[in-house]
Task: inverse folding
């Protein structure tokens, strides 16, 4: 098998994953997923619409070299699984491109939720599915809801030339109750086996969306003036 065919086979599958993830983001009401499942974007999709600097996400090392990354996917905290992919560009400290390629998530190392952030709907001017509200005193959103969090993934980087490498990618979305040390949104990248760490968030946006936060279980109120425990009146003979 030629090297070009090998690379093509590597590209086609993850490209489909990215397309599916973005499709689910656009039509979240179609995703019938359990609680604990998130769709996420990093430096891609509609995050780029309002602010061009949001895409791609970039991380810099101490020597000034940069990794730019974009992608999308899903993760499940219950099964501890992830299905995600994207693209990357490695640039030298003077801005020249060193290599480009694709990345594929192989493992969900951890996910630390910062909580849901319904206010992000207004900030992004996006509506994730139909609005569903319970009683006024106890609103229980059941549609997809933006959430903050820190996702840590083990990924494979497949460059257009050269050997594949394994790294740990951190994706931070600064919404909700964000820890003091994680106020800066973006990514960090650390290659396994030592080497340079890209631990400074330069730019980029990320977003996690909990696909089904929960549904209201409040029973319907009885009609005014009607006691549901009373037997129906008997008809006159």
Result:
């Amino acid at each position: 098998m030629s090297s070009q065919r090998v690379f093509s086979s590597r590209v086609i599958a993850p490209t489909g994953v990215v397309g599916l993830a973005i499709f689910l983001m656009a039509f979240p009401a179609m995703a019938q997923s359990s609680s604990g499942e998130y769709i996420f974007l990093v430096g891609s999709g509609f995050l780029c619409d309002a602010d061009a600097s949001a895409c791609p996400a970039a991380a810099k090392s101490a020597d000034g070299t940069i990794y730019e990354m974009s992608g999308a996917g899903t993760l499940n905290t219950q099964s501890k699984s992830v299905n995600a992919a994207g693209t990357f560009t490695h640039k030298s400290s003077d801005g020249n491109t060193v290599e480009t390629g694709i990345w594929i998530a192989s493992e969900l190392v951890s996910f630390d939720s910062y909580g849901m952030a319904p206010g992000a709907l207004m900030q992004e001017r996006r509506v994730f599915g139909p609005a569903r509200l319970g009683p006024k005193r106890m609103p229980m959103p059941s549609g997809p809801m933006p959430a903050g969090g820190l996702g840590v993934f083990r990924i494979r980087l497949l460059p257009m030339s050269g050997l594949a490498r394994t790294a740990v990618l951190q994706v931070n979305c600064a919404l909700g109750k964000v820890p003091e040390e994680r106020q800066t949104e973006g990514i960090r990248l650390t290659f396994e086996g030592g080497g340079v760490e890209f631990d400074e968030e330069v730019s980029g946006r990320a977003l996690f969306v909990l696909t089904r936060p929960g549904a209201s279980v409040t029973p319907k109120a009885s009609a005014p003036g009607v006691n549901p425990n009373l037997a129906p009146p008997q008809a006159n003979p």
Notes: Helices lie at 3-26, 47-50, 120-124. Residues 145 and 210 are 5 Å apart (CA to CA).
